[in-house]
Write a structure and sequence with these properties.
84 residues, mainly alpha, 4 helices, 83% helix, 0% strand
Length: 84
Amino acid sequence: MDFIKERLVSLCIPERSMLYKEKEQIFKDKMDKQKNELKEEYFNYQYFLKLEQKIDSSLLFSKESESVKRAIDYFVYSERSNKG
């Protein structure tokens, strides 16, 4: 779940997207290296990537709602306060 939260943070707070992309690349590299040993996990990883793409498109679509915009603003404020 932390990975999904980090993805949301990177989408809502652009200055954190590089950190997310670096972690994502490390994860991808690790999975690619262990693809043969971790066949089931690698298969699940492919589904996880598809889920991640859905988060991107769902968030963009949801931002059209005023209540969702307020929720995102609160989420961003909360995340920045926790990291500050």
